[in-house]
Amino acid sequence: MPRSLPPLNALRAFEASARLGSFKAAADELGVTHGAISQHIRLLEDWLRAPLFERHHRRVLLTAAAQAYLSEVGPALDAIALATRRYGSGEGTVLRVNAPATFALRWLVPKLVNFQAQYPGVKVRLETSNEPLEALSGGYDVIIRGGPDSFYGFSARPFLVEERLPVCSPTLLKRLPLHEISDLRTHTLLHTLSLPRLWDDWLSKAGAGDLKPEAVLVLDHFYLTIQAALDGLGVAMGPTALVSEDLVQGRLVAPFSGPRLPSRSYCTYRPEVTDKGGLAASFCSWLEQEGNIRKPLERPRSAASRRPLQNKA
């Protein structure tokens, strides 16, 4: 006789809601709307001809029958997922991600080992590009860009905030101290070709718009600018999200505690039509966890950063 099976998406919605105790949390995990979860639960309840949840404010509780049902459905879904990983072709477990090159090099790649530990069966295929989202050809499961912006057919979620402030190597700071903003006159300022106004904007905000440095060095990629700062070639406008580990480890120092230039947050853009079994939503949630752990430092770790901000320019 043919198997009498309920819709798989309804089962996934039920299992996630029951495990998390919330339709909203289940929607976040599966990458769908709260309304979609409610619709799937109603569909399954109609199919079973029995209620599954007692609705309460902000929480849902399983009925006794649903508890028993979950004890069998949960392991069954785990077994299906395991069998798919073991015997599938593998193509369904490839997650295609597109991110800016500097972000990928400085932030994402060092952390991917954490994602792989949580999802060992998922193969992340990372490609780098700075093109606008609308200019990319299709096929990506997750696109990382600044935002949040609105694009038809994509859901956007911020996961990492960023600011910009001057950074340099401790060796350079020892040779040419920076006690006051006016001391930048004796330094080389490192610029990035694609962001030519960063230094002008920062100096203007610091009240030193007329300051002229000893020299200027322009590089065509942000990661080259950061590397030049690490190598002691000059002072760079460091994006806090991408240099936080260098500041903590002492490879870079921030000679001034402010001002700080605000910047757009890093966001994930995920196509709403497909999600390879929820992998893209899981990847986005993982990025949010990593981003929340490493927000911009409240105070850069250097002796000079403890001095009051002054300007005699």
UniProtKB/TrEMBL annotation:
Residues 6-63 form the HTH lysR-type domain. This is LysR family transcriptional regulator. GO terms for molecular function: DNA-binding transcription factor activity; sequence-specific DNA binding. InterPro entries: LysR-type_TF_proteobact-type, LysR_HTH_N, LysR_subst-bd, WH-like_DNA-bd_sf, WH_DNA-bd_sf. Keywords: DNA-binding, Transcription, Transcription regulation. It comes from the Bacteria. CDD domains: PBP2_GcdR_TrpI_HvrB_AmpR_like (cd08432). Belongs to the LysR transcriptional regulatory family. It comes from Acidisoma cellulosilyticum. One of its GO terms (biological process) is DNA-templated transcription.
